[in-house]
Amino acid sequence: FLEKIDSLQKRNYRCIVLISTNEYEAITETLRRRGLVGTIDLDADVTREMLLEIAKRECARYGITLPPDVIIDTLEDSLRSLGSLRLTPADVVNAFSIVMSAKSEPLQRKLIFASKSGSTEGLEGLKSLGRQVTASDFRDAGRKLKAYTSTEKTDAAKRAINRIAPRERYSDVGGLHGIKEEVIKEISLALNPNLAIKAGYLPPKGFIFSGPPGTGKTLLAKAIAGESNVWFYSVNGPSILEGHYGDPEKTIRDIFDDARKNAPAIIFFDEIDSIAPRRGTHDPIVDRVVSQLLTEIDGFTPLTNVVVIGATNRIETLDPALLERFTRHFSFTYPKNRAEKQEILEVHLRRYRDALENGVTVEDVLKVFEKKVLSPRKMADTLHEANRLRAKELESGYKLLEALKVRPDKREEIRRLFEPDLKRLFERLNIKAEEMPDEGLIQILEKLDPGNYPLSLYHFEKALETVTDEYVEQARSMIRSTVRIKEPEIGKSYGLVALGESGQGGFVGVIEVTVNPRGSGNVRIVGSELGESILASAQDAFVYINSISDWRFKNYDVYVELITPAKGMEKQMVAPSIALPPVSGPSAGLAIATAMLSSFVGIPVDPTVIMTGAITMRGEVWPVGGLDYRGMGKIEAALADEYAKKLLIPEYNYERLGDFGMENALIQRGIKVIPVRSFLQAVEEALEGNPSVEKILNLLKGFEG
User: Fold this and answer.
1) Which residues contact 73 (CB under 8 A, 6 or more apart)?
2) Are 153-331 and 475-700 in the same CATH fold?
3) I need a labelling partner for 292 at 20 to 30 A (CA). Which of 184, 258, 611, 618 fits?
4) What pLDDT band is residue 577 in, cutting at 50, 70 and 90?
């Protein structure tokens, strides 16, 4: 190209070369020095009056009654939201063309039909088309302008962006009572700028969905996008960090630019904590990504009609500045009551309506699921697992039938290969296959069909048995095989210990207390469970027991050991300088106090009594976690304990236990739930022989009986 320019100049052709560009700075300096006469900046003389005149002319052409100044203001706002700073005459003309094309499209088929039939129907609508144009039409048209200026996306942006039009609807979201309605109202309003402007409402810049995995954060965001008929950008956080230097920041820009051009849209960052942790605690690349996110959310280019949602189950690790930009925070939890559980089951049982056994209701399935507290996703997975078990049983029956009829030599191999599936099948059919002749078994299996072998409560129960946390199950097994015994011992009690921040798992822990009468009144925690909360619980128990015994034991040294499989894990690091305890010290307070009193008075603790509750210096039993909608790990631990006959829990927790139907599950297991408000009330139930409070006080004060 440069050679041709040089040739034109040397031969003195009577020729003028005009070069047009919308990025003058991108033209190479070599071309600029080739004797160019000059540059003409066509934007330099573009004034607002010129744009208004063009808009006025176009309005007259199409019969549009909307004021030209409103049209220009609307187009400028739309372009500004796309990052463009100047409106050109061509943009105005193109916008009118886009608007009228969109408006006339519904009339095209009607006009074609009218022309064939000789009718004039539809012509009047065409004449009045301009009067139907609104500012919203120009706002939509503005987003379709300037598309040619977009740059190539990074490879990471292409992988990170999953732009979809979700099929999910509000009816697909079960539970989340209170939260769901509030989120829907907030985000729907944020996606409706016209209403927001008229109401003088400033939409939030972003939303944070926080909560445990599987609680419906992504599903609700998709449902809102589906109901609102907007694009949904599902952003894969870790893939953003891929690429060369500077690519992660550009990827963020590309994502937001694409969303602005396709607004209204929702940008959903799943696991946003992976790309937006506290700055200064991770790689500098991550810090730059956080800064770019802040710029996009709160920069000069507005996020008109674009809603940003970040989902996380570790909100405490997010950068504080980013959290401030996300002005609305919503906490997602496990189902809070039976009604929410039932609603979730209803949603996911729809797909199995035809396969479900006649007479089985959602209420029946709910009773099965009351044995565990599961996230909505886990509940859905368990329903799918139940149907998978049914399908495997059908397959095993067909394989065995084939072996019995065609390949007898493969019969034992098939029985061995499908042993668990055949066992369930025969249990469900209520037959003893090993005692039945082959002819009889063949007759039964030949009748086997998905239509007469429905999905039953049996399958849901078996599927629920598979829902176990490997770590929790290992912990329970370790306790059972080591320190959990059925003989009563002095100074040894059994307390329910919750795992994790919200108590979603749990097991029966052993509390052992040893006392030294020739001491100096020290309370010490021995072993590896050295948490401050455990020491505080032991000290509160020591003070209260002394206060009701005339301080008879004030000079005793007390040694407390909480024996759990979580030894050495008192603090679990989730981020630099942020730790969460795997076991709860306050929850063990009641068990610590019981073992301590047992050591003082010499009465063993009944090993069939398990307990949980916090203890105060005044002997009050306070509520604890692991017994509510956030997690019922302690109840699951009680159900899994082979020796438990009594469960002592704080009265406050007991009053709310009925909302989840867990007491019925405990009663069916043979465990009596006893609510307690005071320590003396609890210890009367926990000590061997159930001594009266009066006897306990006499023993503490040194009186016999």
Assistant:
1) none
2) no
3) 184
4) very low
Q: Per-residue pLDDT averaged across 386-393, rounded?
A: 93
Percentage of residues of the chain with pLDDT beyond 70: 78
Question: What strand order describes the sheet that includes 328-331?
Answer: 161-164, 231-236, 265-270, 306-312, 207-210, 328-331
CA pair distance 657, 627, nearest whole angstrom: 7
- From residue 65, alpha-carbon distances to 506, 608, 645 in Å are 69, 84, 81
In the structure encoding, which two tokens stand for residue 680, read together? 């003396």
Q: What is the pLDDT of residues 20-63, one digit of tens each?
A: 776 665 677 667 665 555 676 666 567 788 889 999 998 888 88
d(CA 279, CA 251): 19
Could you give the dihedral angle defined by the CA atoms of residues 51, 53, 55 and 58, in that order, rounded to the nearest 10 degrees? Answer: -140
**d(Cα 110, Cα 121) in Å, to the nearest integer?**
8
Domain ranges of the chain: 2-32, 48-143, 153-331, 351-465, 475-700
- Beta-carbon contacts of 507 under 8 Å, excluding residues fewer than 6 positions away, are 472, 475, 476, 479, 496, 497, 499, 564, 565, 637, 640
Q: Are 638 and 496 in contact (CB under 8 A)?
A: yes
Query: Is pLDDT of 569 > 70?
Result: no
Cα gap 701→705, rounded to integer Å = 11
Helix, strand, coil proportions of the chain in percent (round to 5)?
A: 50, 15, 35
Note if the bond before 264 is cis, omega within 30 degrees: yes
Amino acid at 88: T
How much is the mean pLDDT over the chain? Answer: 80
Domain 153-331, CATH: 3.40.50.300
Q: Is 635 helix (H, G, I), strand (E, B) or coil?
A: helix
pLDDT in tens, 245-296: 777 888 888 888 888 877 788 888 888 888 888 887 767 888 888 888 888 8
> What pLDDT is stored for residue 479 in this prediction?
72
Question: How is residue 489 annotated by DSSP?
Answer: B
Arithmetic mean of pLDDT, 127-148: 74
DSSP for 370-412, please give it.
TTS---HHHHHHHHHHHHHHHHHHHHHHHHHHHHHHT-GGGHH
Backbone region of residue 28 per phi and psi (left: phi > 0; alpha: psi in -120 to 50; beta: other values) = beta
Rounded CA gap, 271 and 250, in Å? 20
CA distance 85 to 82: 9
Pairing relation of β-strands 207-210 and 328-331? parallel
Q: Which of 423-437, 536-550, 571-585 has the highest mean pLDDT?
A: 536-550
Nearest-angstrom CA–CA distance, 243 and 172: 37
Report CA 98 to chain centroid distance, whole Å.
Answer: 40
pLDDT at 593: 95
CATH architecture of 475-700: 2-Layer Sandwich (3.30)
Q: 3-state secondary structure string, 575-603?
A: ECCEEECCCCCHHHHHHHHHHHHHHHHCC
| 3-class SS string, 411-456 | HHHHHHHCHHHHHHHHHHHCCCHHHCCHHHHHHHHHCCCCCCCCEC
Of 213, 226, 215, 212, residue with least CA distance to 184:
226
What's the rounded mean pLDDT across residues 5-20? 73
Strand partners, 676: 650
